[in-house]
Amino acid sequence: MSKLVIVESPAKAKTIKKYLGTGYEVVASMGHIRDLNPNRLSVDIKKKFTPKYEIISGKEKLAEELVKLAGKSDCVYLATDPDREGEAISWHLAYLLELDLDDTNRVTFNEITKTGVTNGMAAPRKIDLDLVNAQQARRILDRLVGYKLSPFLSQKIRKGLSAGRVQSVAVKIIVDRENKIRAFKPEEYWSIDAKFFPKGSRRAFSASFYGDEKGKIKIETGAQAQELLDAMKDAQPFVEKVRHGTRKKQPAPPFITSTLQQEASRKLGFQSKRTMKVAQELYEGIEIKDMGAVGLITYMRTDSLRLSEDALSAAESYIKGRWGEKYLPAGGPRHFKSRSNAQDGHEAIRPTMVELDPVSVKDSLTSDQYKLYKLIWERFIACQMSECIQKTTQADINVNGYIFKASGYRVDFDGFTVLYEESTDSNDEEKESELPPLEKDMPLKIKEMLPNQHFTQPPPRYTEASLIKALEEYGIGRPSTYASTISTITSRGYVKRESKTLIPTELGEVSTKLMEDRFPKIVNVKFTARMEQELDDVECGKNGWVELLTEFYGDFDKTLKEAKEEMKGVKIELEEDKTDLICDKCGKPMVVKFGRFGRFIACSGYPECKNIVKMVSKIGVPCPRCGGDVIVRKTKKGRDFYGCSNYPACTFVSWSQPTERKCPQCGGVLFKKKGKVPKLVCTAEGCGYQCEDDTEDATIIQEPVTQA
User: Which of 28, 163, 225, 429 could tie 190 with a disulfide, CB 3.0–4.6 Å?
Assistant: First the structure.
């Protein structure tokens, strides 16, 4: 062995090894090898915020093996992911293996293909210390906020709470939207919707009341709507004006991290965490039949819309061969402009080999991998296709001096829409349809004319897709962190999911109010965005990371000390911590408590009364035998299994999680079966049905055990 290449994951190591061949040993660091101790602050504030790194617990043996392998090698290449976090991992590895930081031993791969790996190995460089310092600044800043604020929140509200530089702002954005919804006062308004058709034709078209020849009329009451209807009774409608036009619809740009998460949420119903997990698998390499391990997409953590000339050329050839030259843009390949604050280290997210279309690799992919790859592949190809040309028609219909407006279009040339169209957050987007041939002064007949009552609607609650869009527009956090941020605020109870919407809990609202009152800068959107820009400046070498931390910490520490002093002895009670249960030993109310093993119910008279009641975790699925609640139980060794809440009357138990899905063959319950490819299986005797598991994890609801 002469050359050692260290990457982050075993899957990536396997794919790269195939391309490098003999003479190289490729091993995985399994992510970070060193980090701050999770149980201590591990930052020496008085010594210029010096971090105290140590080998991550459980990775001591791996660290020893890496040191031994490096000692036997003539050359060590650090090939961790091509981003800020990957650069920091390489820096920690260099420290561990005692490598010279002036050595050109850092290699990066934007795509895990033969070309990508060859080009990366041919261009080794030094570790970028600006990137490393940017990662350190974020890591230490987040540690300071988390370790200083979390105990304060835990003391004032409840044990086990946490605060974060990005998570607290994300919760505030959701809370602010909820407050706007509560404060919203709906206003009544009416519309008059009609259907007309030309004489001699049965093809009706829709039109909406606009006003009269003087201008728009707002209909505020049902009585006003009826007056207008009476005024148009027995009228002879005709086409007063027709306008024909052409509009060109442009394709959406290729994906970046945030838009991939948004579109996967809208179109596939994927949570952002699920999207990033699958994208990582597609990037690192999939075993493709007759090809071996292949990285199917470029690096998935990027906010650049740049595309390589090779990729543009490959897309052009594919489009020309499949649909013909008319489906190529008239002005040549499309180039898209990135946001002003985008990091341009990587291309946009695209397939590494255009010729590997989704159908050709479907049999080699899991259901999730296929769905996401298809989305990425189609979006990239579509962005290099010609525009969609639509012929539009707008018509004014005169009904006894009152004007109705109708609009529609027909597709003159489908262009990119033959393959893909971007979805939107709006569910009630107006749907236009093609109008029949209309001419000026053409007489029409009324099929129907109906008044409809409406009320103005409050702003919608955030979904994962719209929250990610908001965070990006505000400039808060980085797209690569959005998945973990949303996962944190939901798993810790600040926000709950209801269908696809995100709703703040009482805990989220109370903690946000406390943060607004005592630490306004931490949850201030503009301040957090400015902080984000300053962190980016560290990455560009424009700002020193120690100076940034010094400036932030002075004010933060002063504010924290004042809050502790002014709120000494204050405890905020949450309504959601109260229960309807009465202690059967002393008669006092029972309340929710939080211990090292999770939530439990205890007597509010503690310590005089130490009565407690266990909590059970419902998964929201009825028992297949008796219809009771399926709950999570534990064996004596702590292993989870599923049982019925009506035990011992019902003895249903299962190691596999039951779902609400029914077997299409026998009608039985489908159970989740874990493995490399998670499946849904039917356990009914003689059935044997199974399919890939495309369901999200169940929502766990904790409730007290019913008292006997």
Answer: 225
